[in-house]
């Protein structure tokens, strides 16, 4: 036997929990802070803060909402555990917009844009107090609805479906789904009571399911309203109370945290400890590569998860380490290529997408834009990409690495060969697409790994893939 070459190219995503030899060589067994768009391997962009930290961010932050207005102005709200804050662009300060009587839990905020009459209004549900409404700018927060209109409920799931407001999360009636009157002819979504003129324009409510398990999430698609309960998924069909039907979705699934659910097109995707699932309008399925991160997902904390869709990428923030205050792992899912990538190095409280831009509320209290800049708020972006264990022609042979060749630009990079014998690394910069850079390596064993790291946050772009050269010899027994 003699020298052997393994070539890596057309880079994909991260696949874990698969035995040696079971992963195609364009997939990574582990990686972080890299992009594989277009089959290239490069360091990701970072994030740039656009607003100063929220006042008193030592109190636990909860949610972020970006509200583009018809005037071209953008209103920004941040929910802290005790208050709602608005950013005042005139003074450059955060203004205490509303103070809660009780501290809010992580999953108790929901924002929804709606029109009450002809007025564009933001509704804020928190599950402990009646819904709040705000018209933006310098306007003050007011209470939504009234006891007379049966709409003064403390709910925290809000959705618009066929023009009506639907709500759930009432602690006194946890399985109850509310809906408003149909807007028009003097009716508004603030009125949830019956209308004597017609059942079809009336508000109302219904208990979902045959048990008292609470509703845990509402999500409207184009032709149905999805209703999550503790152990089942239901859908409401119909466009008016006279033809409403609530039927269970017959599919086995792990119930998600509602903040780990995101709409993409007219499908709902949700991440759980069993993988990434989607609802296609009829049933629930796991994506083809939805189980690729199972070992990782089984260990993370979803309790304060955040999610958003931006372009064709879905983002899910979860907590990987118990000592972290907020979510310290950002999972990216490329919906077109059906693959996952991972980001570490900063904490994410919440995120939202607006006009193709992904906004973050970071653990530092900053409002920032992701995929801009070369650092994570000033901290270097530490990137690596690592192959699965490589057997070569046979696991019965000994391999001795010689060198790796990388084609692209940027650096410096550190290239390591990992094996059962002596490990060696080599540091250098890439020389361009016409001149592969060579990295001398010294490591041996029956199986090998190749690991590529950046140095001090350096930027790089592998456009021509990578090759590993090693000497393979039959073992002497």
Task: Give an overview in words.
By secondary structure, the chain is mainly β. Helices cover 1% and strands 49% of the residues. The protein has two domains: 3-35 and 384-474, Jelly Rolls, CATH 2.60.120; 47-370, YVTN repeat-like/Quinoprotein amine dehydrogenase (Methylamine Dehydrogenase, Chain H, 7 Propeller), CATH 2.130.10. It has one helix at 294-297; strands spanning 3-8, 30-32, 34-35, 41-43, 47-51, 61-68, 74-80, 83-88, 93-99, 110-116, 119-125, 132-134, 142-143, 157-161, 164-168, 176-179, 204-207, 215-220, 225-229, 233-237, 245-248, 261-264, 267-272, 275-279, 284-286, 301-310, 313-319, 327-334, 339-354, 357-362, 367-370, 384-386, 397-410, 413-418, 424-428, 432-440, 444-445, 449-454, 460-474. It is elongated.
Question: Which characteristics define this entry?
Answer:
477 residues; mainly beta; Methylamine Dehydrogenase, Chain H; seven-stranded antiparallel beta sheet; 1% helix; 49% strand
């Amino acid at each position: 036997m003699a020298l052997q070459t393994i070539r890596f190219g057309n880079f994909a995503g991260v696949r874990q929990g698969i035995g040696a030899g079971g992963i195609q060589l364009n997939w990574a067994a582990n990686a972080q802070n890299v992009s594989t768009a277009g089959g290239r391997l490069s360091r990701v962009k970072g994030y740039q803060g656009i607003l100063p930290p929220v006042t008193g961010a030592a109190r636990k932050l909860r949610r972020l909402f970006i509200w583009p207005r018809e005037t071209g102005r953008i209103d920004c709200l941040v929910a802290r555990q005790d208050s709602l804050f608005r950013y005042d662009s005139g003074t450059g300060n955060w203004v205490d917009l509303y103070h809660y009587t009780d501290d809010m839990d992580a999953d108790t905020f929901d924002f929804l844009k709606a029109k009450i009459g002809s007025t564009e209004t933001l509704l804020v549900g928190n599950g402990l107090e009646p819904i709040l409404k705000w018209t933006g700018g310098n306007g003050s927060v007011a209470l939504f609805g009234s006891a007379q209109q049966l709409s003064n409920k403390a709910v925290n799931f809000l959705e618009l479906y066929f023009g009506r407001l639907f709500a759930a999360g009432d602690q006194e009636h946890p399985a109850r789904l509310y809906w408003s009157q149909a807007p028009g002819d003097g009716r508004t979504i603030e009125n949830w009571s019956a209308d004597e003129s017609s059942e079809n324009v009336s508000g109302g409510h219904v208990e979902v399911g045959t048990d008292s398990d609470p509703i845990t999430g509402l999500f409207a698609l184009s032709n149905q309203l999805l209703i999550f309960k503790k152990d089942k998924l239901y859908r409401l069909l119909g466009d008016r109370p006279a033809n409403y039907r609530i039927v269970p979705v017959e599919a086995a699934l792990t119930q998600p945290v509602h903040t780990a659910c995101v709409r993409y097109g007219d499908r709902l995707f949700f991440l759980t400890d069993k993988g990434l699932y989607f609802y296609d309008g009829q049933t629930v399925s796991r994506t083809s590569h939805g189980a690729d991160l199972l070992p990782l997902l089984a260990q993370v904390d979803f309790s304060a998860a955040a999610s958003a869709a931006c372009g064709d990428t879905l983002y899910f923030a979860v907590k990987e380490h118990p000592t972290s205050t907020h979510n310290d792992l950002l999972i990216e899912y490329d919906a077109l290529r059906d693959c996952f990538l991972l980001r570490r190095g900063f904490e994410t409280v919440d995120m939202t997408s607006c006009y193709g831009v992904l906004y973050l509320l970071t653990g530092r209290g900053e409002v920032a834009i992701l995929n801009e800049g070369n650092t994570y708020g000033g901290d270097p972006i530490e990137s690596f990409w690592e192959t699965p264990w490589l057997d070569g022609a046979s696991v019965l042979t000994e391999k001795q690495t010689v060198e790796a060749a990388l084609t692209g630009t940027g650096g410096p990079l550190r290239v390591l060969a990992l094996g059962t014998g002596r490990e060696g690394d080599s540091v250098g910069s890439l020389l361009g697409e016409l001149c592969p850079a060579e990295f001398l390596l010294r490591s041996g064993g029956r199986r090998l790994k190749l690991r590529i790291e950046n140095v001090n946050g350096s930027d790089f772009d592998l456009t021509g893939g990578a090759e590993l050269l090693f000497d393979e010899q039959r073992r002497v027994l």
